[in-house]
Sequence to fold (81 residues):
Amino acid sequence: MEPLWDELSGIEVPCTFVAGERDQAYVDTALQMASRVKEWRFRMVPDAGHAALFEKPDETAEILVDHLRWAATVSSSSTTD
Fold:
């Protein structure tokens, strides 16, 4: 697949980048990606590796729910500015 790093700066929606605590390569990549997006956060799934969604589904779901709440807040505040 062609790298899309240059396209990340065009993302206009809030993004939460997630990686497992024990997958340093993905932690590093997520932080690199996040630095190219306007509105972002990074969350680490504790005691998880490469397959955080399968290893820690409850913790990952909590991160997703938190992201949706945060994104709704960020989106609504940016439309009223």
